[in-house]
Amino acid sequence: MVKKPVFFKFLKLLMIGIIIGILMFMLLVLGHELGHFISAKKNWVKVLEFGIGIPPKICKIWTDKSGTEYTLNLLPLGWFVRLKGEDPKDEADFNAPDSFIKAKVLPKTIILLAGVAANFVIAWILFTISFSFGTKPISIVPENMMQTSLQSYLMPTKSFLYEKWYITEDMKSQIEQSPVMVNDVISGSLSTTMGIQSGDIIKTINSKSINAWNIETTLKNSIGGEISLYYTRNGVSHEAKGTCPEDNCTLGIIFSYSGFTKADFDQFSGDLIKFPLTTAMVVSLKEIKAQTVLTFNALGSLGKNLVSFDKTKINWALNKLSGPVGAVKLGDSILQSGWWKLFLAFAGMISLALAIFNVLPIPALDGGRLLGVLIQWIAKLKPEKYFTIEGYFNMIFFVLLMGLGVYIILKDLIRFWWVHIPFIG
Hints:
This protein is of the alpha+beta class and 425 residues long. The chain folds into two domains: 1-46 and 84-135 and 277-425, no CATH class; 171-273, Pdz3 Domain. Helices cover 52% and strands 15% of the residues. It is built from 14 helices and eight strands. The chain has helices at 4-42, 91-94, 105-133, 158-163, 169-176, 190-193, 215-220, 262-265, 277-306, 311-320, 324-336, 340-359, 366-379, 383-417, and strands at 47-63, 69-83, 180-185, 201-205, 208-209, 226-233, 236-243, 253-255. The strands form two sheets. Strands 3, 4, 5, 6, 7 and 8 form a six-stranded antiparallel sheet that branches. A two-stranded antiparallel ribbon has the order 1-2. Helix 1 (4-42) crosses helix 12, helix 3 crosses helix 9 and helix 3 packs antiparallel against helix 13. The two termini are 30 Å apart.
């Protein structure tokens, strides 16, 4: 039985971690909206409203000299910037010389991409601080997720760590001798369909002996093909067979030594990854490039599975999605482990993810709106008609994105916080 003082101390740390995680996410979104806000002001487009939270509006806090209202809104889900001339029904604002619609294509592009640029800059600054003070990898990724010429320090492969001397010969030997004991199985994954359970020990894959070092390489060689897996459960041997997708071969398990724990990294003197400031600035740019490649590879695989019309692939794709709740949970885990410098790197990854997500050419996102601006400019469409049509598209996709966001949040609550929600997951 857990003693009350220990329990309350744990609860206090948990709540502090959650609050810091939420504040981190809110500040990153604030940085994004400030990008739109400042660029609009600099390009002589009037900002009608800078909102804290999502409407309905509770009250007006302040109005500045340019006429911008700063408002407090009911739903604490972020911030927003409302520009003049975005509503064709308001003819006076729509046709005003300081409206968004009357701006030339270059200022429009700058305004729409300023939020994305702000998140990229924030990510670069946070990565630079983290690398210059010293940090550790957040997780170890499978070998087939990264190109050999492009590697991430925050999400490296084991071979990259070994190549850079972050893994010693003794440590590699220890990993090679470590059996693959399944600690957890991701719902909807390939291992679920094969009947793998927590506590199973995987012995061979396609007749090859498996350990914690070579399992990823072995699975990589089975992409798009059949796999035969032998494992033991309570000392009894079993066989399981499955088929790997054409673009990857991931079992979807969490196992001993699949990643490194704080205790593993504490074997090193000081921090694992540390560079002088000028080097850290350059490494951070390479980290952004590597993280971007990882993200687009994941998005490509995710999109392909979602439109496959295969129920198993769709469920697998949906189970891989994670949102703000999952981010807060991971950030909380990092904070509770005492890795404050690593939390800065994690915040940088979230900022980068926000930038990449918003630049996608999907209606209601910055990338989708920019695509609309370019279509209108190239085709010389009348602004009134085009903005009316775009408004409907944005509304439909906003509702769809919000619905998907709510679904992901509910799934994350179940997955990470063990909240029971009827009919979900």
